[in-house]
Amino acid sequence: MEKIVSLAKRRGFVYQGSEIYGGLAGTWDYGPLGVALKKNIENLWWKRFVLDREDMYGIDAALLMNPNVWKASGHVDGFADPLVEDVKTHRRYRADHLLEEAGVDPKGMTAAQMDQTLKEKGIRSPDGNTLGDVKQFNMMFKTSIGASGDESSISYLRPETAQGMFVNFKNVMDTFHPKLPFGMAQIGKAFRNEIAPRDFIFRVRELEQMEIEYFVRPEDWRKHFDYFLNEQKDYLTKDLGLPEQYIHSVEVPAVDRAHYSKHSVDTEFDFPFGQKELLGLAYRTDFDLGAHAKASGVDLSYYDEETKERFTPHCIEPTFGVGRLFLAILSGAYAEDEKNGEVRTFLKFSSNVAPVKAAVFPLLKNKPELVAKAREVYVDLKVQIPQLMWDDNGNIGKRYRRQDEIGTPYCITIDFDTLGESGDEKKDTVTVRERDTGEQTRLPISELAKKVNGS
What we know:
Elements: H1 2-10, E1 14-16, E2 28-30, H2 32-51, E3 56-58, H3 67-73, H4 75-78, E4 80-85, E5 92-94, H5 95-101, H6 111-120, E6 135-138, E7 141-144, E8 154-157, H7 162-166, H8 169-176, E9 182-191, E10 206-216, H9 221-239, E11 247-251, E12 263-271, E13 274-285, H10 287-296, E14 302-304, E15 309-311, E16 314-321, H11 322-333, E17 334-339, E18 342-347, E19 358-362, H12 368-384, E20 388-390, H13 396-405, E21 410-414, H14 416-419, E22 429-434, E23 440-444, H15 448-453
Parallel strand pairs: 3-9, 19-20, 19-21
Antiparallel strand pairs: 1-2, 4-5, 4-6, 7-8, 9-10, 10-16, 11-12, 12-13, 13-16, 14-15, 17-18, 21-22, 22-23
Helix pairs in contact: 2-11, 3-10, 5-6
C-alpha cells in the first residue's frame, strides 16, 4: 500500500488535502492525472447507466437540504457509527475497527455487544490505555444557514446523494411522466464525519458518490435487484477492467443492514489492506417515498394509467463510491517486473480508464526536424485522442519509465526513419511501444488513432 500511495503523489494522482498546512485528516485532493482517471470512471458509469438507457433520468440536487429531509429519512436519529474514547488521551476510535484489529469480527454486533466484547477481552486503545463505553456517534456534519445562529438555522451537509432524488420524485413524475420501472441517477459529493478516516482514500470525510434510485412495482423488486447486481459486476469488469478474481458478492445480514433496507448485497474487492466493501446494492422498499410523503404532506404515490392502480413504488438502489473505485483500479493495476536487474513499476490500466491513452515524443529533443514532425503528429492525433500527452523530457528510456508509471498504454516515438526519403517504406511510420509487454512495432501514422482507440 505504501508503494501505491507514494506513486499516487509522485505522479500527480492524489495529494494530501491542505498539505502545506500539515494536512487535514480524511481529506484528499486529486491531481491532474487523478482528475482524468476519476472523470473516466464517472463517464463510463454515466454512459452505461444513463446515456445507453431510456428509463433513467439524471439530476443534480443541492448539497444543502431542508433539515426535515434528514429527520424524515432517519439520518438524524440513525446515521451513526460506534465510538469509543481513550479515557486518558481522549482520542476517539471506531469500536468495530479496534475489534477487527484484535482479531474479532464485529459484524452483526450492536454497540452494547461491542462494548461488552471490548471489556471482556481487555482490549485497550492503540496507546495502551483503558477505553470508555461504546456510544453511537452521528456522522452528519452540522452547519448553519443564515445569520440567526439559533436552532432554526441548523442544517446538514448531505451524507448521501439518495435523498435528493427521493424529494425530486414528484418533480420528475410531473415533468416527464415516466412509466414504471424507471430510475433517477446522480453523481455528487457527500460528507461523513468519520471517527477514524483510514486506508488512504478508502475511508474519508468528503466523498463522491454515483447513485441510482430505481423505482419498481413491489412484486418485481427481486427481478430488478438481480439485474442491477449483474450490471454492477459488468461495469467493474468490462468497463473499468478490474480483475474478476478480486471481486466478491456478500449478502449483508439483517443486523448490519441500513435502517431503510430489506435486502442488501455488498460487492467487495481485494484491496491491499483486505477484502472490503466497494459497491452497495439495497432494496429500500417504499421506506423513503413513504417517509417523505408522511413528513411533507405531499402525495408521492404513482398512478398506473393501464391498471388504474395507485401505489407507492418500491426502490432498488445501486450505489458506487468514486474514491473506492479509483483505489480499486489503482491497486488492481499496480505491477512490477524486472529486466536486466532493473525493477520497472507500471500501472496496467484498461485503456478505458487510463488517464493518458498515448504519449508522443521525438527520439531526440535537440533535433529540430524530429521535434517539428513529432509536434505535427501530436497536434493531428490530439483531435482524435483528447487524452494524449507530449513528452520530450529526458532520454527515451526515462520517458518510457515515466509513462509506464502513469499507466499510458502506448508510447509513440518519431525517429529518423519517420522523416525518411521519398519512396522509403519507413517514411511516415513511427515506433509504437506497448506498456505491458514492452514490445515495439512500426506503424503508419495514419493508423495510430485506430490502434490507440482500439477500433
